[in-house]
Specification:
With 171 residues, this protein is mostly helical. 51% of the residues lie in helices and 10% in strands. It is rod-shaped, with a radius of gyration of 35 Å.
Length: 171
């Protein structure tokens, strides 16, 4: 005997509807909260990345300005202008002790040949020709300190930039 149960009498349908009335809003709310949380996290990460990038840029700017000021001051010392090796050794040694961001200081002559570098030691490049370097070529066109393009140092295998102070005879 087949009887047709009405909606009011079918307990399975009632339980299914009751289940859906509770589960659908909970799942929907969970998905909305997860989406909002993800967006906030992404915004926080972007803001954090931007703050870090600004901090790195400010630190780099300060370091570059400081390097330019240092090399400009160094170019005014008689020891450097006269290319006195003994005096430059003392001066450059002092510079390396107070500036841990500097790993090599050297003096080129007007033709681009290295006449002295500090620290002293094996693997000396004294006498080598650096006139082909971009920074040497640029330095011949100015009287102000410049910074080279960054590159990987063959000596240290680290990223470096060279600050250069052109030395001109008094006019």
């Amino acid at each position: 005997m087949l009887t047709r149960l009405s909606f009011r009498q079918d307990l399975g349908i009632k339980l299914t509807l009751l289940y859906l009335l509770f589960v659908v809003p909970v799942v929907t709310a969970t998905l909305l909260m997860a989406n909002n949380t993800q967006k906030r996290l992404e915004e926080d990460v972007r803001a954090s990345d931007l703050a870090l990038a600004r901090s790195i840029a400010q630190e780099t700017d300060f370091t570059m300005k400081s390097a330019l000021h240092t090399i400009q001051s160094l170019g005014n010392y008689p020891e450097v202008l006269e290319s006195s090796e003994d005096s430059m050794e003392t001066l450059f040694g002092t510079l390396l002790r107070v500036r841990p961001d500097v790993n090599l200081v050297y003096r080129l002559n007007a033709q681009g040949k290295m006449v002295f570098h500090f620290p002293l030691g094996p693997g000396s490049t004294v006498g080598d020709d650096f006139s082909y370097r971009e920074y040497f070529i640029r330095a011949q066109e100015t009287k102000f300190p410049i910074i080279s393009k960054g590159r990987i140092s063959p000596t240290t295998n680290q990223a470096v930039a060279t600050t250069v102070m052109p030395l001109w005879e008094n006019e």
